[in-house]
Amino acid sequence: MSTYVFKRIITIVPIFLMATLLTFGMIHSSPVDPAEAYFTAAHIQATDEMLEQKRYEFGLDQPLLIQYVNALIKIFQFDFGISYVTNKPVWEEITSRMTATIQLTIGSLLIAILVSVPIGFLAGIRKNSVIDNFSRFLSFIGASIPSFWLGYLFIFFFSVKLDLFPVEGTGTWRHLILPSVTLAFPLIALYTRLLRASVLENLQESYVLFARTRGIHERIIMGKHVLRIAISPMITGLGMNLGNLMTGAIIVEVVFSWPGFGRYFIEAIFNRDVPVIQGYVLLAAGIFLISNLIVDLIQMYIDPRISRKGRQYQ
Q: Cα–Cα distance between 18 and 25 in angstroms, integer?
């Protein structure tokens, strides 16, 4: 098991290095001159001498390989440069906004799990029942409604009409409800569908028949065996969505004026703030890699056959 974990951790390094190389290449192949972008963001009409001086400060006069190595060293020191707009370190800007995004991510995942697990499980073990029909309807609605439209709909009913929750911003738990539910709604549809299909598939497996012939109680079979194995695809989806929520909850953050990581990225794009864009892309890659690693370890704990299969192919 320890060998499997070590190999999974080692594989992260070349993938992250490839992400840094691609990011570096895309930025330097872009027609946007970082020096010009710096002065544009500062609303300064730069002369040729000022542009040359700024390129020298940014190290753009050096060979590309030297620039990449220097950038890589700074990245591993969590130094993504200085924002063109605020003149503050990008890492400080990102971490100051990460708390709000983490709150939104945790809130939406908790809602999605608490709703989708019981509905998906019951829909699987009670095929064609009322709860099954409801789960399929919920999955259809959740997959069809765009997040931005759902967010505005929640604001209209629960904030404007009923005055139950704040319209925008942060501060209290009431500010967190509407954006969390908006983010969780499509996840509920996805997880419910995945869990239902997995439960139906596992009910046809031989281990369920053997457990029943041994006289094991149906609740133990369903709860201890079927649910534990059937939830595996949902955990895989959870790992992918964790990265999406941490880095891609942009629309919801804009709709609810949530001061998070994604909204900061949108502002950086409009301002052509190159260091922020680069920091966002690299941090997003790191979050995706780490979340997938965590999911693999959880999967291995739930189903030890994963690590045994890994050893078989060595």
A: 10
